[in-house]
Design brief:
This protein has 420 residues and is α/β, with parallel strands linked by helices. It has a seven-stranded mixed beta sheet with strand order 10-9-8-7-11-12-13, sandwiched between helices. A four-stranded mixed beta sheet has the order 1-2-5-4. Bound molecules: glutamic acid (GLU).
Amino acid sequence: MLATATTQKNPYEVALENFDLAANALELEENIRAMIKYPERMLTVSIPVRMDSGRIVRFEGYRVQHSTQRGPAKGGIRYHPNVNIDEVKALATWMTWKCAVVNIPYGGGKGGVTCNPKELSLGELERLTRRYASAILPIIGPEKDIPAPDVYTTPQIMAWIMDTYSMNMGYPVTGVVTGKPIGLGGSLGRNEATARGCFYTTRGSMEHLGIPLAGARVVVQGFGNAGSIAATLFHEAGAKVIAVSDTQGCIFNDRGLEIPAVVKLKNETRTVAGFPAADRIRPDELLALKCEVLIPAALENAITEANAHAVRARVVAEAANGPVTPEADRIFDDMGIFLIPDILCNAGGVTVSYFEWVQDENHLFWEENDVNAKLEKIMVRSFQDVLKIHIDRQVNMRLAANMLGVRRVAEACRLRGLYP
Ligand code: GLU
């Protein structure tokens, strides 16, 4: 499904290109650009792991802090075979604008380990995680940089990071990571938060465009945390999820897939591919399905100039980070496709991470209804903020969101001034 690394656009170039577009539209002064555009700190670490066989294998890991202008760095950790420093830099940069768009008091960061977690035993995964956490330990902490889950990392992995950090400090520090299990200072609603945010912003977009949610055809690429829960929420809201995919295959049913049954199959077999009440289609066919909402919920570069013309959705909701390239953005503009950019669409995850951190720091926990209500309020307000810029300034939603995020970071930077 994914193009090979050589044919892929470098996500960090995409991040810089989108920053420049926003900075130009804001007529941002060069001095501020120089201070907020590039990552503040980048750490590369070696992670030797004793495998179950007794052999020691060396992995490489990263933690990038793009910005701490508005607060501690914040962002997930990705375990994936294609992780590299430029991808982590891009993801960290996007976290900065994302946290600013939803106006939570964080900068942006991201981590990654180049590995295939599907090939690791549970013991190997734990040893890799603890050694990686030890290696980045000097630069993380609840007031410095707070990791969280991302692609192929889980609440259990966050628990191991919390434990490794706490054992080194000599006391329990739950606020050092978010996305933890509920039994360890995690927040109710965190697991569903990315998908909920995607749902709220998509619902807002459909209202804006006059597209009814009931019966709307929805296509989801990627069936991990964000994709599978988004599919469930749309299904529950009366939309018709006609196709979903994962790395093993794509399934399609024009009458609508029975999403709870697809989720059950995914949990049992780790893939949606064998779902009986559906046809198998190719990944390129999935992206070209006529639908109201297309949700890329996998990785970067899913939609490029090579396949954007084939898209027949009214709304594209970026549950993933960076799935649509700048060239594809321009094609969508020409085609009149309404894009909800990643830094808005998937910001529900980091928003509830913020709630989790607040709860941990206060040792006081909220009910799930409160979490969801506060999340909805922030997502609805942020969507309206971005939509207003889109309308007032006649720019696409990507540029509008980047303008809002960059403007808020620039403002903090101006207020703080340049040290020394
Ligand atoms: N990895 C998620 C993202 O890309 C969540 C980050 C967080 O919760 O800190 O937004």
